[in-house]
Fold this protein.
Amino acid sequence: MKKVYIETYGCQMNVNDTEVIFAILAADGWERTEDMSQANLLMANTCSIRDNAEQRIWGRIEVFNQQRKSRPGVLVGIVGCMAERLKDKLLDTRKVDLVVGPDAYRSLPKLLSAITPDNPQIDVLLSRDETYADITPVRTDKNGISAFISIMRGCNNVCSYCVVPYTRGAERSRDPHSIVREACDVFGKGYKEVTLLGQNVDSYLWKDETQTVNFARLLEMVAAVSPELRVRFATSHPKDISDEVIETMAAHPNICRHIHLPVQSGSTRLLEKMRRKYTREWYLERVAKIRSVMPDCGLTTDVIAGFCSETLEDHADTLSLMDQVGFDWAFMFAYSDRPGTLANRTMVDDVPADEKNRRLNEIIELQNRKSLERYRAQIGKKVRVLVEGPSKRDPSQLCGRASNNMMCVFPARDLRKGDYADVTVVDCTSATLICE
Ligand code: 5AD
Ligand code: SF4
């Protein structure tokens, strides 16, 4: 049997896409392997979000190409976000047999059968309607407890720093019934948690002859699958997260109390240059609303340091916003200029690299302190944890997440993965709650 090996880079959306690719290839007679040396086809599902993500992939192409040289007949494919952006460069290297973009995975079997040594195959066309709604992903998670479900693809925001609208195309929502069916299917297979994925879930919208379903309604529909099934989602956009969504979360105990709400910058001037379409005050108001309705809601964010023209004052605004909000956790990045984006075409990447890193380090240091504060504030509280399995650090302990997404560790007792455990927080680090 033909065997395929896939490495996945970038976001959770890409992990889910890899599962769709496995499903498409399985129907074409391919078996999945985790051992590169056994594979007839080696693929990387790639990410373009920052330059260092792309640099890593070039290194992997070298490794794949060594396999290709030492084992004649082995094929190498590059799929995902780098495909469209770098198709010519990829094919010029002659180290790649296949280049396929995020909307063209259905054509993989046809493309694979057409490859010859002198004929690499390529399909990077983006689609207005592809959502892979009818394809049941081959789950690649290791624990069998938590599944990811794509509810939409692409992105219609044009944040000036971001390459995603170019690599993944226009936004389109998936049929809600196919989403609910997939949630029922994984629940039937023993999964206890689904995470609904989209670049901007708040703009999810499905309309057909009989109904209009927005994101709040979709959340309700998925939450109704079973009270035993936890529902999470990502990513929310501060300009779009509605009171209706916040209130729907509050009304359903199985919708987890966690919102990932990327702020990017605390300076209104910079937010405007980033084309985020909200101000610092708007963001703070949304946080206040979330906390007034769900005081226990976990909040995480993304922050970019050193975007074009960022002054020390803008940077101080970011630090003060982070200080004021007190996020549980943040993903923090130095700005990386991406070819083709609005910022790349119309602005100057003028904060020197060492200054970007200095600001980033200040941001990280502040966040580490805030995380510790946020985790400490949980001590003494009772939380319900979905058991994921043994803790990595200490296999005699179990681990799992609280509703607010904080990782918890606690003694195993007679609990098994997939159980819900009611525990009390007794201690913490800045990333883990230690519970009993
Ligand atoms: N440079 C640095 N970080 C970026 N992000 C997106 N584009 C860039 C870029 N060009 C970050 C944003 C986004 C997260 C997924 O990646 O913070 O929310
Ligand atoms: Fe995901 Fe964006 Fe990276 Fe594409 S570029 S894999 S959408 S993070």
